[in-house]
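Appendix C reproduces, verbatim, an entry submitted by the partner laboratory led by Prof. M.T., so that reviewers can inspect both the input and the predicted structure.
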Amino acid sequence: MSRESERRSEQDPGVGDTGEGEQRGRTGPAQFVGEVRSELKRVHWANRRELVSYSLVVIVAVVAMTAYISGVDAVFSRLVFAVFG
């Protein structure tokens, strides 16, 4: 064990734990749904303007990558046909 990991494990006993010891049981459906709802309240949801701009970025990137791959494919296919006839 390195000195850094020893130092971290001394400061925080949970670091480097092998999972032995205290085991937590499964949560019930009601607790799970409650935790999911509380997490979703903390999520930053995009507004319409952000959604449109992010969608346009994705569409432009996909079109650009498709054009690039199509071009490379056309060049390589011509090279293969030129070499192998």
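Helices lie at 3-11, 29-41, 48-84. Additional entries are available on request from the coordinating office.
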